Amino acid sequence: MHILVCEFVTGGGMPSETAIPASLAREGDLMLHALLADLLEMQGVAVTVTRDARLPPLAAAVRSITITDPRESWALWEDLARQADGVWPIAPETDGALERFSRMVEATGRRLFNSRADAVAVASSKAATTAVLSAAGLPVVPVWRAVTGAPPGHGPWVVKPDDGAGCTDTRLIRDHADWRNWLDEADRSGFVVQPFQPGTPASLSMLCREGHAWPLTANRQSVSLSGGRFFYGGGVVGGMALSPALSNLAQGVAAALPGLFGFVGVDFIAGPDGPTIIEVNPRLTTSCVGVRRATGLNVAAAVLDLAREPPVPPPPVARIEPVLLTLEG
Hints:
With about 325 residues, the chain is an alpha/beta fold. The protein has 3 domains: about 1-115, Rossmann fold (3-Layer(aba) Sandwich), CATH 3.40.50; about 125-135 and about 200-325, D-amino Acid Aminotransferase, Chain A, domain 1 (2-Layer Sandwich), CATH 3.30.470.20; about 145-195, Dna Ligase, domain 1 (2-Layer Sandwich). It has helices at about 20-40, 75-85, 95-110, 115-125, 125-135, 175-185, 245-255, 290-295, 300-305; strands at about 1-5, 45-50, 65, 85-90, 110, 145, 155-160, 170-175, 190-195, 200-210, 210-225, 230-240, 260-270, 275-280, 325. Strands 14-13-10-11-12-15 form a 6-stranded antiparallel sheet. A hairpin with a 2-residue loop joins β10 and β11. The two termini are about 35 Å apart.
């Protein structure tokens, strides 16, 4: 089987007129190398990747296509996708990148080792995700569009891009004065507001297919606040117990978004009254870097097994060894 793997940040998706942020390149490379290690362990799997010419070449035993002009990336990706049996994108939801990539692969008729484009379209919008999950009776943090007026209550609130990934442009707004100052700084038409939710930032790593979920790990997230801005620094993969409540949450998310497929991350806050969902990531997340070590499961092999007809479900996770994941240095 020939698989095209495209990690958006390191594989030609970043504009040429600005430097690639070192933090994004590092995070992208962490996910890319974790996926490649799993794929290359499998017999009969050949891998092609694209690589931005501004970054060091890959040492892995893959066919690597260097991209010198990111303006040509989408045409090249489509051509390479047609040459492959399947495509595995690792792309952010920001600016519709992951949805566009998913639709492109679906149009080629090749196997997409990621969530369907319709599910990506919903999950790429925090407002749309909240509406769907809330209608399904799941516990979610409320979301309001920033341009519809001041949010209810007296604060604090969290503001972020509706299609943002990670903690990019995510701020804490403490009161109405802070809100007005933030609103006047720039165009906020693409932002949403959520009430600040006390508790422990966390995520679920799970596999999905056709409305069913197989939870893998529950992860503590390292999220810091500096100058009113939130920063994601990694966390502990498998740092929380996979409780029945979290397993039920995973099943509920998969049922509400049946187009989710493969590796999926669910960000939530673990509070005194139980978990509350913040957002759904319909793709590989940074936590995938530690899942193999935490569980012993080859994630790529498990996803390819789920793609079979009929699907082969992953084995139950027998043990979890917490793994510290840091994005510092």
